[in-house]
Design a protein that fits this description.
Elements (H helix, E strand, L loop, with lengths): L1 H7 L3 H35 L2 H50 L2 H7 L1 H25 L2 H16 L1 H48 L1 H6 L3 H27 L1 H25 L5 H42 L10 H17 L7 E8 L9 E8 L4 E6 L5 H6 L9 E6 L2 E2 L5 H6 L1 E4 L8 E2 H5 L8 H10 L3 H5 L8 E2 L8 H14 L4 E5 L7 H14 L4 E5 L3 H4 L4 E6 L2 E6 L1 H7 L1 H10 L2 H8 L1
Parallel strand pairs: 3-10, 3-11, 6-9, 9-10
Antiparallel strand pairs: 1-2, 1-4, 4-5, 7-8, 11-12
Helix pairs in contact: 2-3, 2-6, 2-11, 3-5, 5-7, 5-11, 6-7, 6-11, 7-9, 7-10, 7-11, 10-11, 16-18, 21-22
Length: 592
């Protein structure tokens, strides 16, 4: 709640004006039973039509003023709620994008989606209703009780008994329902996860004929969610009938005792009607308060889930501002002089383990790379190739040893400055909805058409653009669904090349290309990247054999580092990989 109050603090004036106007509206409502009482006791009993009309006009004026106050209050409350929801959603999204892969793995993408949408909507609705009713409802409840005492002390005693009973019921149901709403939201995460997995893997599900199995799994998770919702709904549903019963019993008590006192001349008919009206006002407000409590229960549970993500501190923090200012101008200057610095990039006895893992995914990785060198990384599936290159842009941080760039530990570089020097083409080529030009500018926002065409030519994607009449205005659907796998990979490579990074990482990014296009791509990258250091991760020997040096991984360990010919001769693991993809004659020829 402290975090939510910090957001509301930005709209202090509106947050104060909304409940104040609601209280002003409530004041006018509390005067209505008194006007009606006078209308009965004075106007109707004496038959004075002008007095009745005058009091009726007063009721209309009170209603119009109350309506104006209500509309004003709701505008202020809606403004605060929507602005708070927007700011909270923006901050949560920004915070999530700043988290490391390790933290995102731990939180889970499905629960992040739920918290960005459903949870923040619950918070927004809770803030809106809270500002509108948190002062108005108690104000009318206690105000009606005070006004009842001012009308008739004995009649007010009924209120003194009924209101505490109502408060006990309200807060008891609040305490019971709040933990259940948290359970409902957690189960909603599981349903969201199952839905997301099914939508993303729909082709695999159909290919293996697993539709019925996945439907059963979804039904089980969804039925459990329904069960939780029904259970907490039943608890919350008790609020209205219990409050209505208590209030109606209070009204019966008022009518019974009041009728006896009216017949005895101790109480006027108008005052009895006023007391009943005040009790009816309490009933209406308690129903509103019941709904408010249910909304607040949901909002508090949802805010706790949002706050849990916002409280996660990123492991990949940038340098403090003072150091950043001091070194910010050094970064590029150093990179210009880095040709004189050898080695350019070093892994010094690096080890890494995923959170919760019992064993290291990488251990004892030790090698160095010169500027402008092309390094191939090869190994079996699960050998740690992708894990290794994810350490360079600090998607994950090493758990042992260190990665050094130009002699400095990469943790000493400001994070964003470090990542600007890296171009990454991931295993799964991700393109965004928009034109080719817009997608290419993800690599470098200031890139012009000539820069983009140059990158497309190197990536062997120029022919795809030239074959379409739209050129760079060719529209790419979300995820590149209107392109083939090979076209998506080539565009992803071009996007990384546009920024002309110091380090280019291609993580098995040519797996969908034919051998001729793959060879042309590697040749073009070697010729057109100047002093760019290139990492090529692949399971194909043909893709990495022409690299300046090759790193061989097996179960997270370095088995060899050298040229293709050296590794065939000296590294048994690499030799076995070659024999699985090449003929014995070709291997013998390369070894000679």
């Amino acid at each position: 709640m402290k975090r939510l109050l910090s957001y509301l603090g930005k709209y202090k004036l509106y947050s104060v004006l909304a409940p104040l106007f609601k209280c002003l509206e409530a004041c006018f409502e509390l005067f209505v039973p008194l006007v009606v009482a006078d209308m009965i006791d004075i106007g109707i009993s004496s038959g004075s039509i002008p007095y009745i009309l005058r009091q009726g006009g007063l009721l209309i004026v009170l209603g119009l003023i109350g309506l104006a106050c209500s509309i004003t209050a709701q505008w202020f409350a809606a403004r605060v709620a929507v602005s708070t929801g927007t700011a909270l959603r923006n901050d949560l999204f920004s915070h999530a994008t700043a988290l490391s892969y390790s933290e995102l793995d731990n939180i889970g993408s499905s629960t992040l989606l739920t918290r960005l949408t459903s949870d923040i909507n619950q918070v927004q609705n809770g803030v809106n209703m809270f500002l509108r009713l948190f002062m108005r409802s108690p104000f009318i409840v206690f105000g009606a009780m005070i006004m009842a005492f001012s009308v008739d002390f004995e009649g007010g005693m009924v209120f003194a008994v009924a209101v505490p009973l109502l408060m006990i019921v309200v807060f008891a149901i609040l305490l019971l329902s709040m933990p259940m709403y948290e359970k409902v939201q957690r189960q909603l995460d599981r349903v969201m996860l199952n839905t997301r997995e099914n939508l993303q893997g729909v082709r695999v599900i159909r290919a293996f004929n697993r539709q019925e199995s996945e439907k059963r799994t979804f039904k089980e998770e969804n039925d459990l969610l329904v069960k939780f919702q029904i259970f907490v709904g039943r608890i919350s549903a008790l609020l209205n009938p219990l409050t209505v019963v208590i209030v109606n019993l209070a009204i019966v008590a008022l009518l019974y005792t009041g009728a006896l006192r009216v017949f005895g001349g101790e109480l006027t008919q108008g005052k009895l009607v006023a007391l009943v009206n005040y009790m009816s006002q309490i009933l209406v407000e308690l129903i509103k308060l019941a709904n408010l409590i249910i909304l607040i229960s949901k909002a508090i549970a949802s805010m706790g889930r949002v706050d849990a993500v916002l409280s996660v501190e990123s492991e990949t923090e940038s340098l403090p501002v003072s150091e950043k200012d001091q070194r910010g101008t050094e970064g590029r200057a150093q990179s210009k002089e880095s040709e004189k610095y050898e080695p350019f990039l070093e892994f010094r006895d690096v080890s890494f383990a995923y959170k919760g893992a019992k064993a290291d995914s990488l251990s004892g990785i030790d090698f160095s790379v010169r500027r402008g060198e092309t390094v191939g990384i090869i190994g079996a599936t699960g050998s740690g190739k992708t894990t290794l290159i994810n350490l360079i842009p600090r998607f994950y941080d090493v758990t042992g040893g260190g990665v050094y760039l130009e002699g400095r530990n990469i943790k000493e570089y400001p994070l964003m400055d470090m990542r600007k020097r890296i171009g990454l083409v991931p295993q799964r080529s991700v393109l965004f909805s928009g034109t080719v030009r817009e997608n290419m500018k993800w690599g470098l926002e200031t890139a012009d058409d000539d820069d983009i065409y140059a990158a497309l030519t190197t990536a062997q994607a120029r022919e795809v653009v030239d074959s379409k009449k739209e050129g760079l205005d060719l529209v790419i659907e979300q995820g590149g669904s209107n392109l083939s796998g090979g076209q998506r990979q080539r565009f992803a490579i071009a996007r990384a090349l546009v920024r002309r990074p110091d380090i280019l990482i291609m993580d098995d990014s040519a797996s969908a290309l034919d051998f001729a296009t793959d060879a042309a791509l590697r040749k073009a990258i070697k010729e057109n990247t100047d002093n760019m250091t290139v990492f090529i991760i692949s399971q194909r020997v043909s893709t990495v054999r022409d690299a300046d040096r090759i790193l061989v991984l097996d179960e997270g360990r370095s088995m060899g580092f050298g040229t293709h010919k050296e590794l065939i001769r000296d590294c048994e693991t690499y030799r076995e990989i070659c024999l699985s993809q090449m003929t014995a004659e070709e291997v013998a020829r390369d070894e000679a």
